TrEMBL record:
This is Glutamate-1-semialdehyde 2,1-aminomutase. Its EC number is 5.4.3.8. The gene is hemL. It is found in: Cytoplasm. The modification N6-(pyridoxal phosphate)lysine is found at residue 272. Transmembrane segments: none annotated. Belongs to the class-III pyridoxal-phosphate-dependent aminotransferase family. HemL subfamily. It catalyses: (S)-4-amino-5-oxopentanoate = 5-aminolevulinate. GO terms for molecular function: glutamate-1-semialdehyde 2,1-aminomutase activity. NCBIfam families: hemL, PRK00062.1. The keyword Cytoplasm applies. Its cofactor is pyridoxal 5'-phosphate.
C-alpha cells in the first residue's frame, strides 16, 4: 500500500503540480491531496484505505452518488457494444431530446436543438462563437468571479481555480483576445447598462453563470437575469446562460426553471450532471440560432469524441434517475448539511454567512452576504484551510477551496449526513482560531 504523500511525490515527477486540474493540488488548503481508488454512493476511498464522506461529487456530475448501479450498468452495456464509432448513434438523439424536454418553464422551450461536446469549456466556447457568428460582432461581456472554463477569452477575472490561485487571468492569452472580453462586476445592472451604452453595437453576447457557484455561491439579485436578457436584447446582443454547474442540479430545468423572475436566454450551456460522470457537455438553443452551426451553417464546431456512446449512456441514465424523489433527497440533505455547518460556525463564534441558490450552498467567512467578486474576496478566507483540514482529518472531503460550492448528492442519506454533522463542531473551532 502506498500513502497519499508517496503518490503525490510520484505524481509531481510525472505531471505539472502532480495534477491534471489545478485545484486538485490542495495548494490553497496546505494539505496533501488524497489519491482516490474507489467511490460508492456518498463515499470515496483513498489509497491508504481511508473512507471519506464526499462533498466534491466529482465537482458536480455525481449527483446520484458515486457509481450509481444504473449508471454503471448503462455504461458497461454501452461499452460492450463499442466504445465509439465516430458516427451518429440513436442515443445521442435521445439525450438531445431529453435535454430539450426537461428545460422548460410555463410551456416555454428555449432548447430546440442541442449540440453535444465533451467539456463545459467547449460548450461555452462554442456558444460564444455561435453568438459572434449570429450577430457579426466580436465583444463578449462577462462578470468578474464567474467561471466558464479555460478558453482564452473567458479566463479574465475568472472564478474557480483561477480565483483559488488568486490569478487575474492567465499567461499565454494574447492581449488582442483578452481585449474582446469586457469584464464587469456581478449583480450590478448599472455596470451592465454602462457597458452597453458605451459599446452596445459591438457586443455579441453577455455570458453569465445562471446562479454563480465558482466564487462560492453568490445568488443573483432578484430579477437580475431577466434584466440582463432585456438589456442584451435591446442592443441586439444574445444572453448565454451558463448552466454547466446548475443545469439539472438545482431542478429538472436548471436555474432557468427556478429563477424567481422568468427570463429568456438565447443559448444555454450544460455540463457536469448531463454527462453523468463521463466527459459530456452540451449547448442548446432555438433552431434558428443552433442551425448556424456546421454542417447547416457557417459556424464551425466539431469533436472526435463528441456524443461518445459511453458518455451519452451515463448522461441518459443519470437524467432518467433524476426524478422528483431524487431531487427531494438532494434538497433535504443539502439543507441539513448547510444548516448544520452554519450553526456549528455560530456556536464557535465564527463570522460567516450561508449563501444559497436553490439546493447549492457555500459558507463564506464574511459578516454581510457577498454579492460580487470584490466582496467575496474581502472575506476572511484564511479561516477555510483549517476548517477544511479538520473536516478531512475527520473523514469528510470538502472542496479544497473556499471559492467552490459543496456538492451534495441524492445518495447522501442520514448516515452520511450525520457523519458530516458530527465533524462540523471541531472544524468550526479550528476555523475560529
Ligand atoms: N461553466 C461553469 C459554470 C463551470 O462551473 C465550469 C466548470 O467548473 C465550466 C463552465 C467548465 O466546464 P469543464 O470543466 O467541463 O470544462
Amino acid at each position: 500500500m502506498t500513502t497519499n504523500q508517496q503518490e503525490f511525490d510520484r505524481a509531481r515527477g510525472a505531471m505539472p503540480g502532480g495534477v491534471n486540474s489545478p485545484v486538485r493540488a490542495f495548494g490553497s488548503v496546505a494539505e496533501t491531496p488524497r489519491f482516490f481508488v474507489s467511490a460508492s454512493g456518498p463515499y470515496v476511498t483513498d489509497v491508504e484505505g481511508r473512507e471519506y464522506v464526499d462533498l466534491v461529487g466529482s465537482w458536480g456530475p455525481a449527483i446520484l452518488g458515486h457509481a450509481h448501479p444504473a449508471v454503471v450498468k448503462a455504461v458497461q452495456d454501452a461499452a460492450g457494444r463499442g466504445l465509439g464509432f465516430g458516427a451518429s448513434t440513436p442515443g445521442e438523439t435521445e439525450l438531445a431530446e431529453l435535454i430539450a424536454a426537461r428545460v422548460t418553464r410555463d410551456g416555454s422551450h428555449p432548447v430546440e436543438r442541442v449540440r453535444l461536446v465533451s467539456t463545459g469549456t467547449e460548450a461555452t466556447m462554442t456558444a460564444i462563437r455561435l453568438a459572434r457568428g449570429a450577430t457579426g460582432r466580436d465583444l463578449v461581456v462577462k462578470f468578474a468571479g464567474h467561471y466558464h472554463g479555460h478558453s482564452d477569452g473567458l479566463l479574465a477575472e475568472a472564478g474557480s481555480g483561477v480565483a483559488t490561485l488568486a490569478m487575474p487571468g492567465s499567461a499565454g492569452v494574447p492581449a488582442a483576445i483578452a481585449a474582446q472580453t469586457l469584464v464587469i462586476p456581478y449583480n450590478d445592472l448599472g455596470a451592465v447598462r454602462e457597458v452597453f451604452a458605451a459599446r452596445g453595437d459591438e457586443i455579441a453576447a453577455v455570458i453569465v453563470e445562471a446562479a454563480p457557484a465558482n466564487m462560492g455561491i453568490v445568488p443573483p439579485a432578484h430579477g437580475f437575469n431577466a434584466a440582463l436578457a432585456d438589456i442584451a436584447h435591446a442592443h441586439g446582443a444574445l444572453l448565454i446562460l451558463d448552466e454547466v454547474l446548475t443545469g439539472f442540479r438545482v431542478g429538472p430545468a436548471g436555474w432557468y426553471g427556478i429563477d424567481p423572475v422568468p427570463f429568456a436566454p438565447d443559448l444555454i450551456t450544460f455540463g457536469k450532471v448531463v454527462g453523468g460522470g463521463l466527459p459530456l457537455a452540451a449547448i442548446g438553443g432555438p433552431a434558428a440560432l443552433m442551425e448556424l452551426l456546421a454542417p447547416l451553417g457557417p459556424v464551425y464546431q466539431a469533436g472526435t469524441l463528441s456524443g461518445n456512446p459511453l458518455a451519452v449512456a451515463a448522461g441518459r441514465a443519470t437524467l432518467d434517475h433524476l426524478d422528483s424523489a431524487a431531487y427531494a433527497r438532494l434538497d433535504a440533505a443539502s439543507t441539513a448539511i448547510a444548516e448544520a455547518a452554519a450553526s456549528a460556525l455560530s456556536a464557535a463564534g465564527v463570522t460567516h454567512v450561508l449563501q444559497r441558490s436553490g439546493n447549492l450552498f457555500s459558507i463564506q467567512f464574511a459578516a454581510e452576504a457577498p454579492t460580487d467578486y470584490d466582496t467575496v474576496k474581502a472575506q476572511q478566507a484564511f479561516r477555510y484551510p483549517p476548517f477544511f483540514r479538520s473536516m478531512l482529518a475527520q473523514g469528510v472531503s470538502l472542496p479544497p477551496s473556499v471559492f467552490e460550492a459543496w456538492f451534495v448528492s441524492a445518495s447522501h442519506d442520514d448516515e452520511a449526513v450525520s457523519r458530516i454533522v458530527a465533524a462540523l463542531p471541531a472544524a468550526a473551532r479550528a476555523a475560529a482560531e
